[in-house]
# Entry
Amino acid sequence: MSLDIGGEVILAGILIIYTITVIKSKLKATIIFAFAVLLAFLLHIPGHVLLDIRFFEILTILFSLMILAGVLKRGVFYGFILRFFNKKQLDSKKILMMIAVVSAILSAFIDNVLVVYYFVGLLFIYAKEVNIDPKPFVYTTIIVSNLAALGTLTGDISNIVLGVWRGYSFLTFLQKAGMIALISTVVAIIYMYHVCKLESTNIDVVEKDLVSKVVESETTHEETKVFLYYGIIVLIITIFGMPLSEILGLSLSSFLGLIAVAILFLGGEHMKEIFEDIRWEYFLYLIGLLTIMKGIVYSTSIDMLTEITKPLLSSPYSVFFTSLIVSSIIDDVELSVIAIPVLTQLQAGDAAWWALILGSSFGSALSPLGAYSNILALSQFSGYKLKDALKDFFKLSIPPVAVGIVISLILLNIGFFGDI
Amino acid sequence: MVNERSYSTVLFILGLIISYYLGYLQGLGILTEEQVKATIVFAAVLVMIATEYRHRTVAVLSGVVALWLLGIVSAEEMVEAIDFEVIGVLFGAMIIVLSMEKAGFFDIIGDFIARLPIKSPFAMIVIFSVTTAILSAFLDNVTTSLFMVPIALAIAKTRGIRPLPLLYSLAISANIGGMATLVGDPPNIMIASAVGFSFNDFLIHAAPMSIISLTISLVLIYFLFRGEIKEKMLVKRIKRAEEVAKEERPQRDTYLLVVSTMFFLVLLVLFVLQDFIKIKPGESAVITASIVLLLGGSKVVKVLQSIEWDVLLFLGGLLALVGGIEHTGLLSLLAQYIVEITGPNAFNIVSLVLWLSASLSAIIDNIPVAAVLIPVIKEIYPIIGTDAVWWSLVAATALGGIVTPISSVPNIIVYTSLRREGYQITFAQFVRYGMLFFTVNLITINVYLIVRYGLFGL
# Structure
């Protein structure tokens, strides 16, 4: 049943699908997955080609992070942080800064998609409760999360995909991108602290218990406490364990897989609820994208794609700027699955791969369209208009991203990431 | 309720006994160290599933990790052991069936049955059972039960029929119906993928067993509950039954209903034509499901959220786990042991597989039973050379589900619904009925297999 599909047809198909998913963002996962299945079928890609062990490593890392994020969510970890700051009677600006710091730390370790997804939902409730404008809180969380996520292999899905594909370790990521992420994030937090127009008066302590309000329909207070303590312990073990595991010779996917199973096993009967919290459609989305990548490699479209994109990806600088621009329009992982086969075909060196990682991460932080999580988070605004969001978002994102870009270019130039 | 500490104690004692016995076998040189470790891991997983000590997916994933940590299999070998054909069929079928459900397909079936102007309770039971069996032969039997139970309860309440016979027949027929087709039950998909049976093979070999079982079960229901179903139903209250059955139902989505039903029929056609078009069931299911996702509109987001992802993960993990155990040669050893007991006799082996796997399926989930027995039967098959052994496994995994209130999901739904409605059926009472149906059905199927596959003279 194999069909001889021309490379141009496949590329046109991918372009159309990517365009549709920008417009129909809520159906992104289903559209990408369905397209990938049809592509694999029409190209008759053999099972052994699709069953790449690296796929499983990527999916294992994502699954493990989702389990951890699920436990934290059930423990209302994000609500706990808000309540903690609220009890300290901080003014709204300080709360904003604290939220940014926590988002940054969490995003660096447990995938910013999950942090943004869970945190932003709670921020809306919080903003409504204390009667303030949620936009600065939400924008700050999104931008800071994306910037901090650059620093580690587990910070972002595109990092996971690129890291696993290139065989970069957790420590390598930390060493190469950690400092850039840290500086950009700190700049972002300081900048937002000064720019955001929030009243600096104290906010009254919320009368209703915010935590119980958020979770009243999900778990009892006692169960929430169990999840909270359990989640915090596992989070600490994971954060310290990830770099240690590699020193001990255990791959990151193996370590995180072990952590996930341990969480599920030790958590007992409560863990059934965690399965319900996992965003399974995201797996479909990722499987779809990875299949599309295999489709590109398996068909004649790889030569055509390489030919078309060669001028854009010929040097690490051009890779950096191309990925920066493209991933400010589409999700960085969508860009990665297109760029991986091309850079592999071009036998690009480490500098080009790091340029892709850096450029795509900054692109995600730059625009509200830059990541799936950004779109999901912003779609929670009632009466959301992209045009208004773009203006406000760019105002906050451009300066810190610009700092990151300058640092990245300097480091690229001095050969920190490898020969150019 | 038994608490976690009691479970732990039972598990600990069981673990000690199994370990002691396995150590003894290792001492005799019957088992290798690797096989002993694999047996302990697998036994622990089975006990955890059977006692519900941990969620079944968690139990299986823990087993997979344990095998990997013990160095029995590598991650690559486990991935290779996962049969994605099986997962593809299940995943594709889930998407299409859930789309039909969200679109209101079961609503239409329920309305139709509720409107029937039937006076005889037994006739209603027959119609209900046959409908349930047909639905669960092609659709997921959990979904079928979830939708049929409220309709049955509504009819029972409003038309003066006792709920027990109606609901009990519903549980039995949901289990038996699953036997009939390739997509009826996950073990069927696993067997079809492992052996290469087509959808048509199931229609030719398994569907007759399902029809016979259903007929026998309806006869038994008549004699068992004849005291409760002798009164005539109240035809006047049909309208009210319709109203009650419609309560708390999702709104119909005509567009999604047309798309999902049309592609469900396309899927069935692809299954039937499998031998001609050379597309495997897994591919057909995933492709048709993808088209439904593409064309289904905004409601497909809800469909994705409703998929039983943990079941897919459980199945994948289980296949990896069994693959790891197979890797140690333990299942070959089990196959040799079975042949030693029965001799190379098809009648003995088919009967043993039927009764053993049905009994195991009554205690634990039928998916792990099938996962373990498939490689064992593959070893035995060349000795006896009859497909009857595979069909006995198909029948057994379905019939095992009828014994206790917790042997299968339809039973759980029916049992809890009856108790919630204040009908005090006890666990023991349910098991008594279950044992009767189980024994009669197994004897009938055993005879059928002997006669149909000519196992007399072997």
Q: What stands out?
A: The two ends of chain B are 49 Å apart (CA to CA).
